[in-house]
Amino acid sequence: MKSDLDHLMQERGIDAFVIIGTENDDTDRSYITNGAHASATVVKKYGHAPVLIVSGMEVDEAAKSGLQVYTFHNFKLPQIMKEHAGNRRAITREFYGNIFDEFEINGRLAFYGTGSVMQTWKRLNHIQQDFAGRIEIVEDEETDIFQVARRTKDADEITQLRESGAKTSQVLRATRDWLSTHRAAGDAVVNSDGQPLTIGDVKLFVRMRLMEAGMEDTEGMIFAQGRDAGVPHSRGEANTPLKVGQTIVFDLFPRPIGGGYYHDSTRTWCLGEASPEVEEAYRLVMHAFTQSMEALTVGQPTRELQELVCDIFESHGHPTPKSTPGTSVGYVHSLGHGVGLDIHEAPGIGNFTPSQVVFETGNVVSIEPGLYYPEKGWGIRVEDTVFIDESGHAQSMTDCPYDLVIPLTG
Predict the structure, then answer these.
(1) Residue 358 gets which letter from DSSP?
(2) 410 pLDDT above the threshold of 70
(3) Least confidently predicted of 21-35, 351-365, 380-394
(4) Nearest Cα residue to 38 out of 16, 13, 56, 14
(5) Where in the chain is the domain with CATH 3.40.350.10?
(6) What is the pLDDT of residue 24?
(7) How far apart are CA 335 and CA 177, in angstroms?
(8) Which CA distances in Å does 340 have to 26, 253, 337, 347, 357?
(9) What's the whole-number mean pLDDT along residues 298-309?
């Protein structure tokens, strides 16, 4: 949680940190600024609240963060740029020098943010050289302070995650209901005019419903059928007509329009009917899903849940990453991941997740077991985003039926 940042800074010997201001989307900056849409430079000294430094055009937006806002003029950037026109190193030296003086920043300094790798590398080298003896740019651990802090969500974050979950679930249910209004014509699924319904048609419907709900499909939803459903990250081909009885993996992971907390959920559907083989496999996936939810406990190494699911699938003859590393059939991936401002966050739930990574109160994670057999023409995945509450139990934030078959009108 955000309240952990000072503790993490102290633990890692970080006296202050800077998130470099750019126009790039930066979820660490969004985290600190409470979602304010400003390309701010963020400065936080240990034991002090973060402050934002922005252009005059962004003051009002930055103020929505509830944090203290400064402008470039406070640090004489316009004068510095005029004096050192074209000399980027000198501009950086004078600008950051004024920031360090204003906030009395000395010692071990960590930098975060997004941007050009080469330009950032040059800038940090120059800062280290130009302020040698005053500051030391330090390397954070592989799992940095933001990844650790964001692993658990506070009450306000949970509220936003629940809102995203409710809106995503609304769209899932609307899509299910809409698909049921179509009919079968032989093995094809057609609309009221007798025209084949395509994956592209479905995705258009979903995106329209998302927009109406104030959500956006930034990463590209999965709506994959048949063989493509057996390839976990196949998005599905827009011009593919839907077929009766084939498995459809519908993985929807939107966020609020303009940025915010994601929701991640998957349902597997068959339109009209399902084969006995698919029904049997679906029951097994649902068994793995419910066993995962029931077994999840605070303090438990997350990888134990992955191993539980592997054991369930292996006991029924399916390959898994535990028994068959690198398998492309059976159960082929990890059980889940953290969900937040990024669609994939800590903690991971996989075979190789370190044993010291445990479930904690405030985690928000996906639980998504699946089975995949592309050459048999089917794939199955079921996924909810879940929150670990104060009692240590997993609560689903996804509200959509788990029924495999969607009946058609005729």
Answers:
(1) B
(2) no
(3) 21-35
(4) 56
(5) 2-148
(6) 78
(7) 28
(8) 13, 11, 10, 11, 18
(9) 96
Q: What are 4's two structure tokens? A: 């952990």
CA–CA distance, 123 with 129 (Å, rounded to integer) = 10
For 363-398, the pLDDT digits (tens) are 999 999 999 999 999 999 999 999 999 988 899 999
If you average pLDDT over residues 54-62, what whole number do you get? Answer: 93
Tokens at 39, concatenated: 């390309």
CA atoms of 189 and 205, how far apart (whole Å): 16
C-alpha atoms less than 13 angstroms from C-alpha of 205 in its C-beta half-sphere: 17
Please report the pLDDT score of residue 86 as a whole number: 86
Please give the Cα distance from 98 to 256 (Å, whole number). 37
Question: Quick one: tokens of 402?
Answer: 């788990």
Residue ranges matching CATH 3.90.230.10 in the chain = 150-406
Distance between CA atoms of residues 343 and 321, nearest Å: 23
pLDDT, tens digit (0-9, with 9 covering 90-100), for 88-130: 999 999 999 999 999 999 999 999 999 889 999 999 999 999 9
Q: Which DSSP state fits 140?
A: P
Q: How far is the C-alpha of 243 from the C-alpha of 238, rounded, in Å? A: 14
Residue range 2-148, CATH number: 3.40.350.10
Q: What are phi and psi of 179, to 5 degrees?
A: -60, -35
Q: At how many degrees (to 10) do helices 276-295 and 302-314 cross?
A: 150
* 3 state SS of 190: strand
Concatenating the DSSP letter of every residue in 300-315 gives SBHHHHHHHHHHHHHT
Report the amino acid identity of residue 266: T
Q: Are 137 and 127 in contact (CB under 8 A)?
A: yes
Q: CATH number of the domain at 150-406, please? A: 3.90.230.10
358, 160 contact by CB (below 8 A): no
Provide, rounded to the nearest whole percent, the portion of the chain with pLDDT above 90: 93
What 3-state class would DSSP assign to 12?
coil
User: Rounded distance, CA 336 to CA 386, Å?
Assistant: 10
